[in-house]
Design a protein that fits this description.
By secondary structure, the chain is an all-alpha fold. The protein is elongated, with a radius of gyration of 29 Å. The N and C termini lie far apart (96 Å).
């Protein structure tokens, strides 16, 4: 009876199975990307905490020559 019901419902459509496999692979890829980005974010947060006392302007090289005033 189960086979009859399965056949009636449609059974295993190869296109549906292929799409399901594709989506499962996509989910795995996204989970891997999430783990990578989280570890990168943790490293950046640790670096930011280490340099918390420094301001962004302190880290920029300000050896830019002064511009001459425009002629009026």
């Amino acid at each position: 009876m189960a086979k009859a019901l399965l056949g009636y419902v449609g059974g295993s459509d190869p296109r549906l199975l292929a799409e399901m496999r594709r989506l499962q692979q996509r989910v795995q890829n996204l989970e891997s990307e999430l783990v990578r980005i989280q570890s990168e974010n943790d490293a950046l947060a640790a670096a930011a905490a280490q340099h918390q006392g420094e301001s962004l302007l302190d880290s920029i090289d300000l050896d830019v020559p002064q511009a001459e005033p425009a002629l009026t």
